[in-house]
Amino acid sequence: MIRKRSLVLAATVAATVAAATVAAIGSANAATGGTPLPAHVFAPYFEAWTGDSPATLSQQSGAKYLTMAFLQAATKGSCTAYWNGDTGSPISSATFGADFDKIRAAGGDVIPSFGGYTADNTGTEIADSCTTVASIAAVFENVVTTYNVTRIDLDIEDNSLTNSAGIDRRNKAIKQVEDWAAANGRTVQFSYTLPTTTQGLASSGLAVLRNAATNNARIDLVNIMTFDYYDGASHQMATDTQTAATGLHDQLKQLYPAKTEAELWGMIGVTEMIGIDDYGAAETFTTADAPTVEAWAAAKGLGQLSFWALQRDNGGCPGTAGSDSCSGVSQSTWQFSHAFAPFTSGSGQSTPPSSPSSSPSTSSSPSTPPGTCSAAAWNAGTAYAGGAVVSYNGHTWKAKWWTQGETPGSADVWTDQGTCGAGTTTPPTGNCPAAWSAGTAYSGGATVSYNGHKWTAKWWTQGDVPGNNSQNVWTDNGTC
Length: 480
What we know:
Elements: H1 19-32, E1 38-42, E2 45-47, H2 54-61, E3 65-73, E4 81-83, H3 97-105, E5 109-115, H4 117-122, H5 126-129, H6 133-147, E6 151-155, H7 164-183, E7 189-195, H8 203-214, E8 221-225, H9 237-255, H10 261-266, E9 268-273, E10 275-276, E11 284-285, H11 289-300, E12 304-308, H12 335-340, E13 345-348, E14 389-392, E15 395-399, E16 414-419, E17 447-450, E18 453-457, E19 474-479
Parallel strand pairs: 1-12, 2-3, 3-5, 5-6, 6-7, 7-8, 8-9, 9-12
Antiparallel strand pairs: 1-13, 3-4, 10-11, 14-15, 15-16, 17-18, 18-19
């Protein structure tokens, strides 16, 4: 799949307030943490290299939330990211900080996006460029604290889809940032933006997600680019969006079998290329397609709706394919933005959604009998904020920080508050380790007990029953 990106970098965006004032705002933001995004959000991409003001175009278009494209290294091999790889546009409150504050003051927010076609093609995507996981994680954390954001987008296409080392580094860095955020009381979500076929992700995109699972990296949203198919077929773009997202849903169900239907759909985002895409007129997303997709996405409960790009939302170049400044179809200015705007709904999420390391269970029994303990029974599929109280094995437990899937008594996250009842889930006795749980993710080498036997995981696994799965994940160590 090809998606054009300008190779010409814009001049540094001038700050609209004094640098000292903006720095003070950024410092205050870093101390407080950002507000989570709505559960269902419309966030079109904003071409950050153009010199346009994000706040101005957000106000004019009615698109309150923007995905900012793109952050990347200036040169291959660097571990420093800049907006569009322009060293004059560093990650700094003086670059876009004032705009972002105005967007938030108007009730919106931003999602910084790393990568994009140009970076992925030239080796300047941060995880392709930088070979140190800790340094990549530090870049992500710097974006979070500098701009007080709660979601980072990773646009991975072209060469970045085949760079296995970069894929692994990126996902390891995501895990590090998620651990850092949990320890510091922050909400940080990660989305992957990936190319798609009309039936779901290609194998290269699936490999990115599988590697994330291997590294216990929680991916909160998978955003598919429903354009630039380049398959020579006839396309009805709204229909293709639905079949592509449905295919992704089925793929995610295989990756995360414990998730509910609502959680799976909520993990999906779609990004259109409004008007005529890079392939040409055969792939045209029309003004009539927009309300159809918005209504369908809202009915399914998708997590995000987006398009490339806000500066294209005008009818200034009818018949032109793949322009960065107009859609190529006859339309009124901001017509696509107005059609998609109603999609934004739902309050912000107070805790990160479930993850490969902690997927919710669709059928979970209480750990203690009703009425035995006053606190609700712990559930492997529930995300708990710091301070949450649960009952498990006849004890009351209090979470020290955000957690999901970590069994009380087997992880340092829980503090034992004392007995509260007999309980029904009893830890194994004798030489048996903790009982296997379908809702828990296990790393290679983890040991569990099941059916009176001790089992050791060969690699990362979740939901694979010891002794009864086609992947032969578990080694039987004998009775215990």
